[in-house]
Specification:
Elements lengths: L5 E6 L7 H11 L3 E6 L3 H4 L2 H8 L17 H8 L2 E7 L1 H8 L6 H8 L4 E5 L3 H5 L1 H12 L3 E2 L3 E4 L5 E5 L3 H10 L4 H7 L3 E6 L4 E4 L2 E3 L6 H12 L3 E6 L11 E4 L3 H11 L5 E4 L6 E3 L20 E3 L3 H8 L5 E8 L3 H11 L4 E6 L11 E2 L1 E5 L4 E3 L3 E2 H18 L1
Parallel strand pairs: 1-2, 1-3, 3-4, 4-5, 8-11, 8-13, 11-12, 13-16, 16-17
Antiparallel strand pairs: 6-7, 9-10, 14-15, 17-19, 18-21, 19-20
Helix pairs in contact: 1-3, 1-9, 4-6, 5-8, 10-15, 11-15
The structure holds cytidine-5'-monophosphate.
Pathway: Cofactor biosynthesis; coenzyme A biosynthesis; CoA from (R)-pantothenate: step 2/5; Cofactor biosynthesis; coenzyme A biosynthesis; CoA from (R)-pantothenate: step 3/5
Function: Catalyzes two steps in the biosynthesis of coenzyme A. In the first step cysteine is conjugated to 4'-phosphopantothenate to form 4-phosphopantothenoylcysteine, in the latter compound is decarboxylated to form 4'-phosphopantotheine.
Organism: Levilactobacillus zymae
Length: 405
């Protein structure tokens, strides 16, 4: 997505300002042409000369951005921009952007830019958590600006917390999959989404369970994409090996019954639900209290299973018209026909059907291919691509459905 793009990189004042230089390089490596704006505070940490040498272009600073020669540098730069990236963005820069201030070169260029905008915050953890900063983040999201979630780790102050500047390579890889369209963030900002993920476990005894091949990657990718688009995300997850996505509330569950309880109690307060969990269809009629032993007279063990509750079916019965509900269908045959039946039967707004009989995509891998089936009958097949990219597309469809409600 960065190939041949004009990226205007705004660097603000932070201990992380020096990483702006590495980021400029990384953007160039991804094919972008980069021009830089330095705030006055950034100029105290890094020099315009460094960025001018790296980008082979003039750097816009507060010194002399208004000339008497008729050139209006900030408007020229704003009009040149395909992507405006503020990184590292200080709490002050976010406050300027959120309030539409245009009292220096950086904020005036930003305000004058009509291109997609991304903010990568870097600040002390208490400054990040401050009510004012979180309010500014929400305002930026509501204005269609993408705000990446800072990393958690050791800060310059010597203690750990959230607020660390993301690594330049991470920023560039996130830019490749971001829902950069402003309508998505505007529609999802402040919406409360429940996302389920992973394969449920149905206990046979204290040490054994029935489960399936789901890795949870698709659901985690959906939770991350929704969070980045500004939604308030609760991820209800069966056990997985995946790290917890930052900025997301996690509710761990094991069995289908626990998943059903977790979803149904939270549904009334939610705006939407994405059921990406691979739910067991059957559970043992009874789970043994003690470990099941093999003895000389039990050459065979017969398990009695009963149907699990169908969560989406129960959701359909309680769903309000303003809520958006998305299901997944993992099929090995008649993908579209079975998917369409599930969409109708479970009263879904959207169903992502994926073919799990193919070795290159599906359950455990990083890639997937899905066909989105919409309630109005139309469908849309994605290419084989990363689960992150599919999650981004799914979230933008969810935003469209919210806008139509
Ligand atoms: O298992 P099936 O293919 O029917 O799953 C389709 C959708 O229904 C998925 O989104 C899954 O999470 C959901 N489901 C459910 N309750 C079940 C089984 C599946 O909500 N008991």
């Amino acid at each position: 997505m960065l190939q041949d793009k004009h990226v205007t990189l705004t660097v603000s004042g932070s201990v992380a300002s020096y990483k702006g230089a590495a980021l400029a390089r990384e953007l160039q490596r991804a094919g972008a042409t980069v021009r830089v704006v330095l705030t006055a505070a950034a100029s105290r940490f890094v020099t315009a000369e460094t960025f001018a040498a790296l980008t082979k272009a003039p750097v816009l600073t507060d010194t002399g951005w208004w000339h008497a020669d008729g050139k209006i540098d900030h408007i020229e730069l704003a009009d040149w921009t395909d992507l405006a990236l503020a990184a590292p963005a200080s709490a002050n820069l976010m406050a300027q952007f959120a309030n539409g201030l245009a009292d220096d070169a950086a904020s005036a260029t930003w305000l004058a830019t009509a291109a997609p905008k991304v903010v990568v915050p870097a600040m002390n953890t208490h400054m990040w958590q401050a009510a004012a900063t979180q309010r500014n983040r929400q305002q930026l999201l509501a204005d269609g600006v993408q705000v990446l979630t800072p990393a958690t780790g050791l800060l310059a102050e010597g203690y750990a917390g959230q607020g660390r500047f993301l690594e330049p390579t991470d920023i560039v890889s996130q830019l490749a999959t971001l829902p950069l369209d402003a309508q998505t963030t505007t529609a999802l900002s402040g919406k409360h989404l429940l996302v389920t993920a992973g394969g449920t476990r149905e206990r046979l005894d204290p040490v054994r369970f029935l489960t399936n091949d789901s890795s949870g990657k698709m659901g985690y990718a959906v939770a991350t994409a929704a969070q980045q688009a500004g939604a308030d995300v609760t991820l209800i997850t069966a056990p997985t090996k995946l790290p917890v996505p930052s900025g997301v509330t996690v509710v761990p569950i094991e069995s289908t019954q626990e998943l059903a309880d977790a979803v149904l109690t939270r549904l009334p307060a939610a705006d939407g639900l994405v059921m990406a969990a691979a739910v067991a269809d059957f559970q043992p009629v009874t789970a043994a209290d003690q470990k099941i032993k093999k003895t000389t007279d039990n050459d065979e063990l017969v398990l009695r299973l009963k149907k699990t509750p169908d969560i989406l079916q129960a959701v359909a019965a309680n769903k309000r018209p303003d809520q958006v509900v998305v299901g997944f269908a993992a099929e090995t045959q008649n993908l579209l026909e079975n998917g369409r039946q599930k969409l109708t039967k479970k009263h879904l707004d959207l169903l992502a059907a994926n073919d799990v009989s193919r070795a290159d995509i599906g359950f455990n891998g990083d890639n997937n291919q899905v066909t989105f089936l919409f309630a109005d009958g139309h469908s849309d097949q994605t290419p084989v691509t990363s689960k992150r990219a599919i999650a981004t597309t799914l979230i933008s469809h969810v935003a469209e459905i919210f806008n139509q409600k």
